[in-house]
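Fold this sequence, please.
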Amino acid sequence: MRESILTIPVSEIFEPRKGCPICRMRDMLEKRTTEYIMGAAMMEPDVRIETNRLGFCKTHFDQMLKQKNRLSLALMLETRLEAIEKEVFSKPNVFESKQKKVKSLVRNNSTCFVCSKVDWAMERLMVTVFEQYKASKEFRELFKSQEYICLPHCELLCNLSAEGLDKRTAADLRDDCIAISSKYIRELYGDVSHFCSMFDYRNNGENADWGNSRDAVERAVEFLTSRKP
């Protein structure tokens, strides 16, 4: 697979200042990867070997199903099913234990081609984020101006910063992550609470003021899971 399609300038990810920047990074990587394998690359031998071996998780199956080229997905499914049938469900030979079949079943249920590529690219992009955070005052200000960092990616940044930064800079980044997410969760809590209160009969009527609460449930799910519902 041409890894160049997973190269994204980090500053472009942080510039919009809307939503979680790490979610935007992951979403862009997923989009590029799924479009790549659903196109002509689907017929590249090295790609097909990997998709046959790793398969896809439900999240990325859903993303591919939304694209127009269902034939590409069907062709990959055809050879993926064939590979699983041979590896997991064919009768074991005299030198192969039943436990090996079970291990193959477990592996086939826990791997995804897109996840592997996105994880690979995310690791490298995180290094760039930390380098820019350490070296550039402007990038730090851009980082701190984000609308929010979702809960899973707040954890990711806090954990990885301990490995990718010196102790003082890592502490600064963790403080910024917590401050950004803390501010947003208070606002989110207010919107969700307001949404709940609007179902009280006393708040019904033609002039009912929903404020910013109409999509509060969806925004809360996205903040807590990193995925749009």
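Residues 6-135 form one domain. Residues 167-197 form the longest helix (31 residues).
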